[in-house]
Amino acid sequence: FDCRGIETLQIKTEDWDSIAVISYVYGYNYLRSQCAYDVAPGGLLASVYHLTKIQYSISKPEEVCIKVFAPRSNPRIPSVFWIWRSADFQERESYDMLGIFY
């Protein structure tokens, strides 16, 4: 959990495709934001996805934060553009800033 009480999952790159699909099927239908950061100099790179479950009958939407880690030697993380269209420019910006291939 982070300071706001949002559950945070840390996953491997090879698990991201299936976890993204499961998250969408479970109702996380909105990608609020995506960003990336350098975990440590010469170490891992991380891509962070903030997902929200938006439903009409719920006053406070559920949120989850998913961190996907990739080695600097092979910075490839599967794109989720085909699930959440809003990932398009955000993942491209992460590529421009950190060189992560989506």
TrEMBL record:
Answer yes or no on keyword Chloroplast: yes
Q: Which UniProt keywords apply?
A: Chloroplast, Plastid
List the lineage, top down: Eukaryota, Viridiplantae, Streptophyta, Embryophyta, Tracheophyta
Q: Which family does it belong to?
A: Belongs to the complex I 30 kDa subunit family.
Q: Provide the NADH:ubiquinone oxidoreductase 30kDa subunit domain boundaries.
A: 10-101
Please name the Pfam families in this protein's record.
Complex1_30kDa
Leader sequence range is: none
GO MF annotations for this entry?
NADH dehydrogenase (ubiquinone) activity
Protein name according to UniProt: NADH-plastoquinone oxidoreductase subunit J
